[in-house]
Amino acid sequence: MPYDGPADEPDKRTLRRDFLAARNRLTPDDVREAADALAGRALGLPEVAGARAVAAYVSVGAEPGTLALLDALRTRGVRVLLPALLPDNDLDWGEYTGEDSLARVRHGGRMELFEPAGERLGPDAVTRADVVLLPGVAVDGRGLRLGRGGGSYDRVLARLAAAGARPALLVLLYDREVVARVPAEPHDRPVDAVVTPSGVRRFR
After folding, report:
1. Residue 106 CB contacts under 8 Å (≥ 6 apart), including other chains
2. Pairwise CA distance, residues 110 & 13, whole Å
3. Can you give the pTM of this predicted structure?
4. 16, 55, 177, 198: most buried by Cβ count inside 10 Å?
5. What is the pLDDT along the chain (204 residues), one digit of tens a residue?
């Protein structure tokens, strides 16, 4: 989908709907194969290979899969932090110690999320991560990410900046979700790299 028009046309909501519709057409086998490829690509990145702590998330539905990556990181002895959505859409964090450490949580009428079931470490825990995996639905040639629209990760990025933390920012996507241009706002911060099943693209 080579969206490359002006920043406000088509708008974020339209783009998000189109990308999510394309994901929903994927088969379970498509999602599983992509997840394995994504884990292999991500684990090969120097930033990930050298990380002591990674802030990530558990993919849901047809999102690019993360569980294979989370388990591989744990096997390597990496501390994996996962988000828990707060009522104001900010994120708290907890530690991932395997699939039995996850709780299925529904926030209002939204999709169910998998969140850490154990101790909450506070919203600032993310500032101690060496790598932060950001969810998204697309990224453009500038490294600007189109998110899911809740604003939670805008707060995470602002918190990192306020703390002077500079973890590697990575987004995991399907190949077709790397596009020429997405709508951007002045506060948007580019990611360092996008990982897709077919490769890695760096932006800075």
Report:
1. 112, 113
2. 16
3. 0.90
4. 55
5. 333 334 344 588 888 999 999 999 999 999 999 999 999 999 999 999 999 999 999 999 999 999 999 999 999 999 999 999 998 899 999 999 988 899 988 877 666 889 999 899 999 999 999 999 999 999 999 999 998 878 899 999 999 999 999 999 999 999 999 999 998 887 788 999 999 999 999 997
